[in-house]
Amino acid sequence: MSGIPPSLEKLAELMAKFPGIGRKSARRIAFSLLDRPREDIILLARAFLDVKDNVRRCPVCNHITESEPCDICQNPRRDSSVICVVKDSMDVLAIEKTTVFHGKYHVLGGLISPLNGIGPDDLSIEPLLIRAKEIHELVFAINSSVEGEMTMHYIRKMLSNCPVSISYLARGIPIGSDLEFVDDATLARALQSRIELKGE
Ligand SMILES: [Zn+2]
To answer: Separation of 151 CA from ligand 1 center, angstroms?
Structure first.
């Protein structure tokens, strides 16, 4: 766009690539940086790098963490016999906010989606199958989209010879909606009244 200094336009272009930031907001953020003290900009740039350099995946549950294993995995007060399976780390945060779940998690890192070329091997499914042998209950907290159903079906099939009890969230979660956008009370109720799946 003419009239905008190239460095400002470049920053706005980069910001617009982030989720939830449209072109207009990106330009507004870029402009607002002009009025901030240089120290703030340095802190911001460093915060970006710190996230990139320090946040990694927990080797046990695949949740984001700065320690290995993550705080949830190494918390002795969490029930190790129950694992809640979620699509991504945002879902862990949403469930933790309800404070009703006291087990541990497993973050798949996405859902099986043949259309997008995502198969079981692209997700953290193999480590989950190994963990499932040591636990009592596995709770699917995955939305019932086509990809969600496909992913749960695949995992259930792979666990057909495993004695683990499998349950899923009670009704109330809108089909296809991300857990992070479901209100706390609905999510808490769905977790507390989860339904056990009888052998297929
Ligand atoms: Zn962990």
So the answer is: 21
What does the alpha-carbon distance between residue 30 and residue 25 come to, in Å, rounded to a whole number? 9
Kindly report, residue by residue over 119-156, the tens digit of the pLDDT: 999 999 999 999 999 999 999 999 888 999 999 999 99
Task: Give domain 6-54's CATH architecture.
Answer: Orthogonal Bundle (1.10)
Rounding to the nearest 10 degrees, give the CA dihedral for residues 172, 173, 176, 177: 140
Is the ipTM of this structure higher than 0.95? yes
77-197 — its CATH code?
3.40.1360.10
Q: Express each pLDDT in 59-73 by its tens digit.
A: 999 999 999 999 999
The two tokens of residue 177 are 């909606």
Going from the Cα of 112 to the center of ligand 1, the distance in angstroms, rounded, reads 22
27 CA from centroid of ligand 1 (Å): 37
Our measurement of the distance from residue 139's CA atom to the centroid of its chain's CA atoms, rounded to an integer in Å, reads 15
Cα 124 to Cα 169: distance, rounded to the nearest angstrom: 21
Q: Which residues surround ligand 1, an ion (CB under 5 A)?
A: 58, 60-61, 63, 69-70, 73
The pair of structure tokens assigned to 45 is: 């740039």
Q: Separation of 128 CA from ligand 1 center, angstroms?
A: 12
